[in-house]
Write a structure and sequence with these properties.
Layout lengths: L5 H18 L3 E7 L4 H7 L10 E7 L4 H14 L6 E5 L7 H13 L3 E2 L2 E2 L3 H5 L11 H12 L15 H8 L2 H12 L13 E2 L1 H9 L2 H4 L9
Parallel strand pairs: 1-2, 1-3, 3-4
Antiparallel strand pairs: 5-6
Helix pairs in contact: 3-4, 8-9
Length: 227
């Protein structure tokens, strides 16, 4: 049997202390969304699967354009009495101008705001729970595809925005882990900072990884666990 070195023992003690410290901490998320219901409802649902003492999610729906979402996130973080551990802006390309979309991402980066942007719509993240797509499609096509996948399990299902059950439905009938892998695959197809041309693409997976494994916010050196 191999001997345990002093270095290994010291590492084990450090890991035990880190786990204890994490159990005593709550990770505070601020998620500012372009939409007022669809995205806030989806992300707030993560609290239903993780212990409340480890995760605190504050979601805000703004009904503003891309740049307005980022500006709201900056203002909220800077003026709130709560110290947020992770601050995110969530918005879509939609019909916003290329300049507005790219400027929003650049401004977020300059102000340490993380972006879970989608091009062209948030529903791309939903579709990736069922199938890999690498060509741009319209919002109507997104809706039709989501309906076709879920009506296989729920014959009367019709996708509608603002459905508060989407997180639970995707968790039950889709594959979140595979969706993240496919989202990363899409992202790797593009280079440069002209994000408006990265279509289809979504960075929602990055926020989902943090929500599923909040301790990586406190300990960035840890790799995300399986979704």
């Amino acid at each position: 049997m191999a001997r345990v070195t002093k270095l290994e023992k010291r590492f084990e003690r450090k890991e035990r202390r880190r786990k204890i410290n994490f159990r005593d901490q709550r990770v505070y998320f601020l998620i500012v969304c372009e939409g007022t219901k669809t995205e806030p409802q989806y992300f707030a649902s993560f609290k239903t699967v993780l212990s409340p003492y480890t995760l605190d999610i504050e979601t805000i729906g703004t009904a503003k354009n891309t740049l307005g979402v980022v500006e709201t996130a900056i203002q909220r973080r800077n003026t709130s009495n709560k110290k947020y551990d992770s601050v995110w802006a969530v918005f879509d390309r939609d019909s916003f101008s290329e300049r507005n979309f790219n400027n929003a991402i650049n401004k977020a980066d300059a102000n340490s705001i993380k972006c879970a942007w989608s091009n062209e719509a948030f529903e791309l993240w939903y579709i990736l729970h069922f199938q890999y797509v690498d060509t741009g499609i319209s919002r109507k096509d997104y809706h039709r595809y989501i309906t076709s996948q879920l009506e296989k399990h729920l014959p009367k299902f019709r996708y509608k925005k603002n459905n508060p059950e989407m997180y639970a439905l995707l968790r039950r009938y889709g594959n979140q882990k595979q969706a993240a892998k496919w989202a990363k695959k899409l992202e790797k197809q593009y280079t440069g900072n002209d994000f408006a041309q990265h279509n289809p693409c979504t960075r929602v997976y990055a926020l989902v990884e943090e929500l599923n494994n909040p301790k990586i916010v406190l300990f960035p050196s840890l790799k995300p666990l399986s979704l």
